[in-house]
């Protein structure tokens, strides 16, 4: 199967070929045909499987079929995303796949001055990607009207509801024309989320890409049972002894993320934190430094779980286990992308055991237990002692595999078979 077999038009095929994308993913094969036929759709697929391209490509193709000019502030396409990072990622996808077309797109979100966004809107944009808060703000000021929206996309709908955007989404939908094409995409779909989606769709097609067992085979998962006050020491041990080139660490709170990043910096580990209290400039700088390799570790809250699209993250560390098991899947999905393997370490304190049980129940997999043995006094003294790094081979981390569904060796890192269009 190729993109040409899906009846994708030549300008889009050229853009795909230029980026090295050759084979559509399962969600793209399932979603693109009904979307080209104008159907409303609910699409469910694991993170990292190309959901964004699954709606961007057919939308651009259908826009080409009926060329129109967009008046100032009246877009033809509206995409809602829960986070600034995901909105920026979707905007980049429209730019990449539409590089041989002449559609204008704009990404808007809060945390930055609205002046440049308003200026762009005044020139007219065809495609608007937005977070709910800034969108409603500019609508209330009269800069945006949704009467001309032909395609409405709600991406990561489950995350949108988790973040409390349900009222904002309803307000946005109430301003849309009744005659429109609506597309809802997500990595998971609870009953509540499904019912919410159905209330805005007309006779939708449901597509769900089969789970690729990536969480079982592509990502080598381990859990460390550790006291809360020993998590810093364990993290330092792993970073100093493991082959951890680009590491994404997840903390439960913003304050905790800052504390972990500061601790790493004091111990000569290049790190930064990203969360909702950071300004957009700070978040953009941290993402750029992480992508470019200027920093080794990015410490994040769950705001980053669905907005980071970097193919070569080698390790994900759950410094704190999430209290929602679905978040675990999204977190570890930041590694093992595009056909490569990855590694996920989780730290589980006594008060997090119930979270671990929920995760194993959701993934239907018993995560292997890793045994850590380090000289406690030397390891603890390393934390906060920037001038005295722990000497190599002073301690060790060993792993003991339990009976799990996947007992084979993890796939070799960076074992790409084909590039995936996201």
Report on this model:
- With 422 residues, this protein is of the alpha/beta class.
- It folds into 2 domains: 4-208, Rossmann fold (3-Layer(aba) Sandwich), CATH 3.40.50.300; 214-399, 3-Layer(aba) Sandwich (Rossmann fold).
- It is 37% helix and 17% strand.
- The strands form 2 sheets. The chain has an 8-stranded mixed beta sheet, with helices on both faces. The protein has a 7-stranded parallel beta sheet with strand order 3-4-2-5-6-1-7, sandwiched between helices.
- It is globular.
- The chain starts with 9 loop residues before the first helix and ends in a 23-residue tail after the last strand.
Mean pLDDT: 84
Largest sheet: 8 strands, mixed
* 3D shape: globular
The count of strands amounts to 15
Distance between the termini: 17 Å
Measured by DSSP, the beta-strand proportion falls in 15-25%
Number of domains: 2
What is the fold-level CATH name, i.e. the topology of the largest domain?
Rossmann fold
**Secondary-structure class:** alpha/beta
Strands of the widest sheet, in order across it, are 10-11-9-12-13-8-14-15
Q: Provide a count of the helices.
A: 16
């Amino acid at each position: 199967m190729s993109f040409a077999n899906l009846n994708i038009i030549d300008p889009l095929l050229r853009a795909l070929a230029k980026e090295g994308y050759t084979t559509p993913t399962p969600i793209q094969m399932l979603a693109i045909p009904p979307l080209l036929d104008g159907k409303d759709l609910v699409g469910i697929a694991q993170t990292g499987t190309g959901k964004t391209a699954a709606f961007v490509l057919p939308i651009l193709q259908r826009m080409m079929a009926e060329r129109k000019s967009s008046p100032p502030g009246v877009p033809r396409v509206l995409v809602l995303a829960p986070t600034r990072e995901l909105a920026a990622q979707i905007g980049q996808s429209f730019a990449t796949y539409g590089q041989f077309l002449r559609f204008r797109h704009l990404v808007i979100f809060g945390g930055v001055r609205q002046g440049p966004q308003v200026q762009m809107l005044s020139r007219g944009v065809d495609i608007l990607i937005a977070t709910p808060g800034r969108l409603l703000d500019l609508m209330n000021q009269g800069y945006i009207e949704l009467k001309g929206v032909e395609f409405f996309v709600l991406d990561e709908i489950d995350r949108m509801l988790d973040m409390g955007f349900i009222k904002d989404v309803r307000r946005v939908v109430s301003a849309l024309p009744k005659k429109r094409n609506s597309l809802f995409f997500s990595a998971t779909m609870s009953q509540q989320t499904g019912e919410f989606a159905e209330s805005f769709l007309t006779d939708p097609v449901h597509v769900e890409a089969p789970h690729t067992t990536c969480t079982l085979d592509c990502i080598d998962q381990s859990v460390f049972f550790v006291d809360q006050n020993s998590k810093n020491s364990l993290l330092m041990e792993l970073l100093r002894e493991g082959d951890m080139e680009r590491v994404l660490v997840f903390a439960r709170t913003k304050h905790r993320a800052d504390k972990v990043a500061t601790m790493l910096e004091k111990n000569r580990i290049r790190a930064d934190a990203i969360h909702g209290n950071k300004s957009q400039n700070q978040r953009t700088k941290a993402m750029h430094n992480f992508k470019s390799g200027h920093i080794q570790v990015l410490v994040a809250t769950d705001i980053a779980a669905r907005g980071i699209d970097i193919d070569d993250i080698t390790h994900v560390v759950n410094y704190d286990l999430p209290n929602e098991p679905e978040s675990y899947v999204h977190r570890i999905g930041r590694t093992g992308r595009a056909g490569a393997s990855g590694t996920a370490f989780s730290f589980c304190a006594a008060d997090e055991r119930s979270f671990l049980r929920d995760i194993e129940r959701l993934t239907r997999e018993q995560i292997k237990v890793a045994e850590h043995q380090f000289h406690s006094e030397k390891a603890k003294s390393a934390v906060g002692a920037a001038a005295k790094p722990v000497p190599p081979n002073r301690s060790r981390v060993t792993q003991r595999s339990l009976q799990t569904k996947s007992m084979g060796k993890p796939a070799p890192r960076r074992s790409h078979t084909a590039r995936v269009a996201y």
